[in-house]
Amino acid sequence: MNKRAFSLIEVLIAIIFFSIGFGALFFMFGSSNKQVFVAQKDFIAYSIAKERLSWLEELDYSDIADLSSYDLFSQKMLKDGYYFRTMDKKEKKFEYPKEYKGFGISCSYDDLGKLLLLKVTVDYKLKPDENTREVHLERMIKK
Predict the structure, then answer these.
(1) What's the Cα-to-Cα distance from 122 to each of 13, 24, 33, 99, 105, rounded to whole Å?
(2) Contacts for 130-138 with beta carbons within 8 Å, 24 or more apart?
(3) Less CB within 10 Å around the terminal CB: N or C of the chain?
(4) pTM recorded for the entire structure
(5) Quick one: DSSP state of residue 132?
(6) End-to-end alpha-carbon separation of the chain, Å?
(7) Tens-place pLDDT, residues 104-122
């Protein structure tokens, strides 16, 4: 007698294997989407830090030493950007795209004699109840 059809047990085993495989794929895609979201936020934080560090590099040493009086060292980004005072003490508004909301910037420097170590930290949270994530950039410049 030739057996030409699958038994019910064989069909159930095949369905179990397929469901395990599809479950693993579903989990993988969900996990990779979160990683893409995190990478995007890290890239934005890096871009903000790089922009601020470039801005600091263009200042004279005397201006950098005087920055704390211009409220530039620590600020949370406002809903649509942030305000800062230029070296001629005029207030200006810098507007970030909507993706940049929720990031905070802090800057500091160390005087190393003939060199100045500039430090920029950008922090953010993926969700309000999660830990703060940070991106740090440093650069040394001559006085």
Answers:
(1) 52, 35, 23, 14, 5
(2) 133/41, 133/42, 133/45, 134/45, 135/42, 135/45, 135/46, 135/49, 136/49, 137/46, 137/49, 137/50, 137/53
(3) N
(4) 0.63
(5) P
(6) 94
(7) 888 888 888 888 888 888 8
